[in-house]
Amino acid sequence: MIETNENGVSENSVFKYIENQILNAENSKQKIDYTYNDGLITKIVIYNKEKETTTVLHYKYDNEKLVQVTSSEDYEINYTHNTDGTVTFEKYKDVAEGEGIKVYHGVLYFKNANLIKKECFYDVVDEDKVITSKVTFDYDTYNNPYFSILGYEKLLDKGALISKNNVVMTVAETTVFEGSQTISAAKMYTSTYKYDTDNYPVEQESEASLNNPNYSKIQYLY
Questions:
Q1: Residue 101 near residue 85, CB atoms below 8 Å
Q2: 211 located within any domain
Q3: Cα dihedral sign for 172, 100, 74, 81?
Q4: Distance between CA atoms of 109 and 84, rounded to whole angstroms?
Q5: Total structural domains in the chain?
Q6: What is the mean pLDDT of each run of 10 residues along the chain (222 residues)?
Q7: Is residue 7 situated within a structural domain?
Q8: DSSP 8-state code for residue 99
Q9: Is 12 inside a domain boundary?
Q10: Which residues constitute the domain of residue 149?
Q11: Source organism's superkingdom (predicted)?
């Protein structure tokens, strides 16, 4: 994968596999190693080459559904799979000291194997302030290459990368309620794609705009 920013600087990432199980992904800034158990990704180790630090993520499942992510950065995210197809989540920090402090909670919404909306409510704020966020995703009808990686679609902390199709538009909204005052902000991000004969993207272009000043182009080489 070759990603080029608005200044023409490119970053090459190489993904290695055994069949459809990913072993690692590496570029000049980081290396990510993946560990499987019975077809499920159970550990991800991220080596930051610039800072010379390592982050370890552990994934716990129940009936092949993700129920918890724990990080060496002292946080955990718990997931509950609901009968209506939504998934509720709660993130806690400082878990090494006990039960931890709830940072935020929310709901994930899915349709046709795509994550279409993420609602989030922040818990660590002033008593008279409420902060909420909502991110919605629109998709094409073509194949997302990450979805073909065994077990990747179960990693609920990876956002829209777990979806079956490719995101063409993202709208991120934030609302702050403080006393009688309400402040809202929204940003929109769009991407266009070129595809190969197997309906996988070979090029992704994210246009610069007032909402997203950072242009980027990604080339996918299979």
A1: no
A2: yes
A3: negative
A4: 9
A5: 1
A6: 90 97 97 98 98 98 98 97 98 86 96 98 85 97 97 97 97 92 93 97 82 79 95
A7: no
A8: S
A9: no
A10: 73-219
A11: Bacteria
